[in-house]
């Protein structure tokens, strides 16, 4: 039973990886970017857990900046993905423009909140 | 304690008597003015700061009869010579130099005077402003007096008179020059002085219609005179915010100088009411002794011009003492002097009436004539009128001049009212203190002698009453109601209670019902010291006496009874320095060690590094970057624009506020939209071409 599970898991991972290699490079970049943002956020949360939340607005803006960009990047990924039929008619350039605009607005708010 | 309190009481009484007495008693110039003048006009290292100040000092000394000339002589004459000899001296300095010389009589050569005379005459003929006329004509008059040059005349005296007169206003005030619409009372005084000088410099008679018009101006000026309740008159500027504001004293003294100078050179009466001249003199004397050199000069100089003026010489009725004691049998003494303190012409002083202050009833005495003592120049009434008792009175005096010709020369102002305090001993009789039962059955009554020492000891409980009674009567047997009649009970713990003793006629009585006072006494049983105060300004035997003590037995306090107020331990503690105030500031938040924060800063950079390595791993390239020049330029601009916006955000965080940031962001955003749209649509068109291909 245990063997089957581990081999099944191995098979599952293998298939996932082979499926992922076929993903376009642009989507991989976005994935990488999302990971980068999430990890930065995690490090800040750890810092908060170790030190305390004294300049709380600074902590919030730091974490929300990361999480916000990550969410926006995910949205971009959804729109850019060619498999996604829903956004078939949407040009990726248009999606990128949205992404840039949203990021600028988000960071304006973040900067205002940073103190 | 009691002794010091008594002393304090006497002080208050003295202050009261003094303050109410000076209110409308005017004393002529006296020796105290002389000593103050010497103090105020002290030259610094032998000389004054300006010629004007030198003149003010010399003139004040001259009027007061102080001989200080030798001290000031050398330095002042030196300065006079320099000013008169120099051709560039200001007109004002020339004027004051001549005035100083008029008093000091420095040795000045004839040709110097001639030079000054010709320059002053040139100024007069070209002058247009009031001050120019005042200084130049005034200077010429002084030169004429000093050099006894009888041929010194103004070429066109009537013309000069006319041009000064042209500056006058319809209300009797004057303008400083024809361009300035503001008129001033102070300037009117200067103008009258200048006009008087012009008249004395005129070779022929000035047209009487001009003189008449000026007299009319003076009458109109006196319509604007201001008045206090005690019969003093003064002039004041109507406009307070003029360039060089003059106070009531300098304004009044300017008008007085001008008026007397003008009256001296013109013939015929001015028809001014003599009461107003007397009122002006009273105003000038009512100031007392000024603490300022300029004020003292103004007061003394204008009083000197009133002393021998041709309008009306004010006579001042004054009393050496306005507090008269019945026990010392003081007599009413009255002095009549001119303003500078010289003796008055023969006259009779009558005591017309004596009124109790506050009541307007009939006079207590008939008209009585005061006896004149020629040696001391004092008018005296041997004894106070019999009907005058202890109290505050208003005495009304009247001066009657003997010589009917003097009536037009002197201003006596009719009747003069003077407040007088009559003090005396007040009899204190039949004083007794008693403790009564509530049914009015007296348990113990003790007589007390309020003129001597008393040590009465009483005891009472809360169901009993304390009664204190005494009688006050004046030496004439009238009832007397003092300012203060206060009974004070002081507990051992220094808690004090004061009660006002009420009166009906001569009889003073107070009843303390302890049942109603238990709460006020804070249920404090024990020994109370009893003290009685009777005091008044006119009562010579005002007293504060300890009567004895009272043992009071009060019930136990209920639970919710009020606590006696905390007693102030010491006057020093009350008024001494308070404890220092220490401020508590907000404690700063605990911050982590710097190393830890820096380590985490490095850690947050790690994912970025990972991101870049990942990018390299994926084999990212910039092959899609447009190669042709125009789109490449747009692409570069697009990225630069984003960088600029991020830089703007950094600036916002570091020092700008939201509004500046948003303004800049508006422009940057528009630019970014434009280039972004261009580059992205270009990329889109390429990809769509690829697709269709």
Write the layout of secondary structure elements.
The complex is a heterodimer of chains A (about 120) and B (about 700).
Chain A: H1 2-21, H2 25-51, H3 56-80, H4 92-114
Chain B: H1 2-22, H2 31-40, H3 51-64, H4 69-85, H5 91-104, H6 110-126, H7 130-147, H8 157-165, E1 174-175, E2 183-184, H9 185-201, H10 208-223, E3 226-227, E4 233-234, H11 248-265, H12 274-286, H13 293-307, E5 313-318, E6 323-325, E7 332-338, E8 347-356, E9 368-369, E10 371-373, E11 378-381, E12 391-401, E13 410-411, E14 415-423, E15 427-436, E16 442-448, E17 456-461, E18 465-473, E19 484-491, E20 496-500, E21 502-504, E22 507-513, H14 514-517, E23 526-535, E24 543-553, H15 571-575, H16 594-618, H17 629-654, H18 658-692
Parallel strand pairs in B: 5-13, 6-14, 17-24
Antiparallel strand pairs in B: 1-2, 3-4, 5-7, 7-11, 8-9, 8-12, 10-11, 12-14, 15-16, 15-18, 18-22, 19-20, 19-23, 21-22, 23-24
Helix pairs in contact in B: 2-3, 3-5, 3-13, 4-5, 5-7, 6-7, 7-9, 8-9, 9-11, 11-13, 12-13, 17-18
What does this 3D model show about the protein?
The complex is a heterodimer of chains A (115) and B (693). Chain A is an all-alpha fold and 115 residues long. Chain A has one domain. Chain A is built from four helices and no strands. The mean pLDDT of chain A is 88. Chain B has 693 residues and is an alpha+beta fold. Chain B folds into four domains: 23-311, Glycosyltransferase; 316-423, Sandwich (Immunoglobulin-like); 427-557, Immunoglobulin-like, CATH 2.60.40; 614-692, no CATH class. A five-stranded mixed sheet of chain B has the order 10-11-7-5-13. Chain B has a five-stranded mixed sheet with strand order 6-14-12-8-9. In chain B, strands 16-15-18-22-21 form a five-stranded antiparallel sheet. In chain B, a hairpin with a 7-residue loop joins strand 23 and strand 24 (543-553).
């Amino acid at each position: 039973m245990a063997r089957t599970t581990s081999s099944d898991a191995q098979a599952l991972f293998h298939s996932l990886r082979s499926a992922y290699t076929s993903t376009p490079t642009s989507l991989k970049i976005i994935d990488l970017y999302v990971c980068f943002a999430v990890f930065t956020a995690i490090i800040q949360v750890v810092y908060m857990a170790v030190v305390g939340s004294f300049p709380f607005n600074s902590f919030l803006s730091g974490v929300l900046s990361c999480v916000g960009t990550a969410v926006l990047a995910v949205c971009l990924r959804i729109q850019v993905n060619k498999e996604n039929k829903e956004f078939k008619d949407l040009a990726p350039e248009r999606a990128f423009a949205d992404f840039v605009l949203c990021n600028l607005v988000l960071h304006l708010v973040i900067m205002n909140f940073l103190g | 304690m009691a002794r010091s309190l008594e002393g304090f009481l006497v002080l208050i009484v003295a202050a009261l008597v003094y303050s109410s007495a000076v209110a409308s008693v005017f004393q002529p110039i006296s020796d105290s003015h002389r000593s103050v003048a010497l103090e105020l006009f002290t030259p610094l290292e032998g000389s004054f700061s300006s010629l004007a100040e030198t003149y003010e000092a010399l003139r004040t000394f001259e009027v007061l009869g102080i001989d200080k000339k030798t001290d000031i002589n050398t330095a002042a004459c030196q300065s006079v010579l320099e000013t008169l000899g120099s051709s560039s001296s200001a007109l004002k300095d020339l004027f004051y130099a001549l005035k100083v010389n008029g008093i000091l009589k420095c040795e000045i050569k004839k040709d110097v005077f001639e030079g000054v005379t010709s320059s002053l005459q040139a100024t007069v003929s070209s002058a247009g402003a009031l001050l120019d006329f005042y200084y130049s004509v005034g200077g010429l008059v002084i030169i004429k007096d000093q050099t006894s040059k009888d041929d010194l005349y103004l070429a066109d005296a009537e013309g000069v008179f006319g041009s000064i007169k042209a500056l006058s206003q319809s209300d009797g005030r004057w303008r400083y020059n024809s361009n300035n619409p503001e008129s001033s009372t102070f300037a009117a005084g200067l103008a009258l002085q200048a006009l008087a000088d012009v008249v004395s410099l005129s070779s022929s008679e000035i047209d009487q219609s001009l003189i008449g018009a000026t007299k009319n101006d003076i009458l109109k000026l006196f319509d604007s005179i201001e008045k206090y309740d005690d019969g003093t008159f003064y002039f004041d500027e109507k406009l307070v915010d003029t360039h060089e504001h003059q106070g009531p004293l300098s304004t009044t003294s300017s008008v007085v100088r001008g008026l007397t100078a003008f009256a001296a050179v013109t013939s015929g009466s001015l028809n001014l009411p003599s009461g107003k001249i007397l009122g002006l003199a009273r105003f000038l004397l009512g100031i007392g002794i000024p603490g300022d050199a300029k004020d003292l000069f103004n007061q003394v100089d204008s009083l000197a011009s009133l002393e021998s003026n041709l309008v009306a010489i004010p006579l001042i009725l004054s009393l050496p003492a306005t507090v008269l004691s019945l026990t010392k049998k003081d007599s009413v003494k009255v002095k009549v002097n001119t303003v500078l303190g010289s003796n008055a012409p023969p006259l009779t002083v009558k005591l017309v009436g004596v009124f109790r202050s506050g009541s307007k009833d009939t006079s207590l005495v008939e008209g009585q004539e005061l006896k004149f003592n020629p040696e001391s120049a004092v008018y005296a009434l041997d004894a106070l009128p019999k009907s005058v008792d202890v109290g505050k009175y208003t005495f009304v005096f009247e001066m009657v001049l003997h010589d009917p010709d003097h009536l037009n020369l002197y201003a006596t102002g009719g009747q003069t009212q003077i407040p007088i305090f009559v003090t005396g001993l007040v009899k204190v009789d039949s004083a007794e203190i008693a403790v009564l039962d509530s049914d009015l059955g007296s348990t113990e009554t003790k007589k007390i002698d309020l003129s001597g020492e008393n040590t009465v000891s009483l005891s009472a409980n809360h169901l009993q009453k304390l009664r204190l009674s005494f009688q006050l009567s004046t030496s004439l047997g009238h009832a007397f109601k003092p300012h203060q009649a206060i009974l004070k009970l002081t507990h051992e713990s220094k808690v004090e209670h004061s009660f006002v003793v009420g009166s009906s006629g001569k009889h003073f009585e107070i009843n303390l019902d302890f049942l109603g006072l238990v709460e006020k006494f804070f249920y404090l049983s024990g020994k109370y010291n009893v003290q009685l105060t009777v005091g008044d300004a006119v009562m010579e035997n005002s007293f504060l006496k300890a009567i004895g003590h009272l043992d009071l037995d009060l019930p136990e306090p209920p639970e919710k009874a009020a606590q006696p107020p905390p007693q102030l331990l010491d006057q020093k503690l009350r008024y001494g320095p308070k404890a220092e105030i220490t401020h508590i500031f907000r404690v700063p938040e605990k911050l982590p060690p710097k190393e830890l924060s820096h380590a985490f800063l490095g850690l947050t950079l790690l994912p970025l590094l990972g991101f870049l390595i990942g990018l390299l791993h994926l084999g990212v390239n910039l092959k899609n970057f447009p190669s042709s020049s125009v789109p490449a330029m747009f692409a570069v601009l697009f990225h630069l624009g984003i960088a600029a916006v991020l830089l703007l955000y950094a600036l916002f965080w570091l020092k700008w506020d939201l509004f500046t940031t948003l303004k800049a962001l508006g422009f940057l955003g528009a630019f970014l939209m434009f280039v972004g749209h261009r580059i992205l649509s270009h990329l889109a068109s390429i990809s769509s071409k690829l697709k269709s291909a």
